[in-house]
Amino acid sequence: MKFGVKPSLLSLAIPITLAFTLASSFIPSIYAEEHTNGWQDIAVGGTFSLGIKTDGTLWSWGESNRYGVFGNGEKGDKAANPKLPVKVQGIDHVKAIGAGAMHALAVKSDGTVWTWGDNTDGQIGDGTETQRETGSGKALTDNNRELPTQVKGLSHVVAVWGAWARSYAIKDDGTLWAWGSLYYKKSDGSTGNYATPVQLRFQNVATISTGYGDNLLVLKKDGTVWTFDQGAVVQIEGLTDITAVAAGGTDSYALQKNGTVWVFGSNGRGKIAGEDLAKTTAPQKLQGIQDVVDIRATGGGPLFLKKDRSVWTSGKNTGGQLGIGSYENSDVPVQVKNLAKISKIAAHGTGFRSMAIREDGTLWAWGNGYTGDGTEWYRTEPVWIKSSDSELTPPTDLISVQLDGLTLHFEQQPVIIDGNTLVPLRTIFETLGAEVSWNGATSTITATKDKQTILLTVGNQTATLNGQPIQLETPAAVVNGNTLVPVRFIAESLGTKVAWIPETKTVQLLSK
């Protein structure tokens, strides 16, 4: 396999000036409208899902919009459900999201928190609750929110989570705040709902995870794990160097820095990853799974993202959330079908569906229905969730490009033309810090960094490096409005080594 494009961060010690002359007169995509296809972040709740697209807009979808969780200004029994992602209204500049059972949370870039959806127990955090009739559950005072509402008294927030009827937020000082049905005693000794945030007794918090009931895991910045035990803050013994936690239905999980996973909790299923742990609640190392880099949990079991970017899972398969093409349970870790090169996973300890974002920004979902594909059907294998009507069917095999081990992300996926790999220029320009200009009179793009100059013409197999002609096996090309260039030529011109890994279809660039 030959390569044909791209470095990016490429040997910053090597000065470059890139000038690209286009055969046609169109303005290249680096000056056109920002690319809008794809997803950058996701969250799964008990009954719905959230996603932030690459254009920064926030979307919601799921089983019902009765409580306003779609955030589009509708709620009630007559609220429409297209079974597709619905744009959340009245909010922008979102940097983090979280999902509860039937309410959603978002953090804006200014550190404020906004919520919408079910407010039965004060989980919206605006000082109100939805009062319901005993027995029938009919709303007597409807304070559910169909549009994002700012949470009172919270600022400097960096992350949020939702539980069944509770909300949590971490501030930039490492403090943890919560509101809704908390199960914790108030200052007067009583218990009940908190309609506005209160600070919990945890410090130096890195992240948390929530599951069924009052299952709360708190990961501190020192790698230790803590929780509540009958109102007391306690450390879970035997866990050190932890990098991620996941609270599930009856079990909890902790990921250690070395890629091993530990399980603890009531273990209502009796076996986890093939191990009979029914008689212990102390952390036990899971067998049959290693090299894990992230974990989540559904109501049925754990979800693992491995170092090779494959996704694995085990446990109950209530809604098909194991993603193995059937409804069979599995006591041992099994690989989710047809997923590779995954960059992010999402699940919720009170639900039975999962999602994943691939390196190319495409979104995939599976589990107990309303996955966002326009149907309510259970999906036992991952299905593609479109980010727009214009998004083309994603390829089954992705080409990855790594610079010194770091995967690069592009507005247009790399392609292979005549056996050579071509990659978009945009990411190269941005990572190299090159100054780029467009000359409409000559249809020339010029990118300048120090004194090196590379000249390419779309469709022309002759390029120049500092004025010297070089013959290309594959010329620069335009794909979906993006200018792509051969990676081997660019990389070798800038002193970067190139290697092709055929098993994973990965181009490795080494600048050191």
UniProtKB/TrEMBL annotation:
Domain Copper amine oxidase-like N-terminal: 403-508
Alphabetical list of InterPro entries matching this protein: Cu_amine_oxidase-like_N, Mao_N_sf, Ran_GTPase-activating, RCC1-like_dom, RCC1/BLIP-II, Reg_chr_condens
Annotated Gene Ontology cellular component terms: cytoplasm
SUPFAM superfamilies for this protein: Copper amine oxidase, domain N, RCC1/BLIP-II
GO molecular function: guanyl-nucleotide exchange factor activity
Domain RCC1-like: 96-385
Domain of life: Bacteria
Keywords: Guanine-nucleotide releasing factor, Repeat
One Pfam family recorded for the sequence: RCC1_2
Location of region: Disordered: 121-143
Gene3D superfamilies named among the record's database cross-references: Copper amine oxidase-like, N-terminal domain, Regulator of chromosome condensation 1/beta-lactamase-inhibitor protein II
Protein name as catalogued: Uncharacterized protein
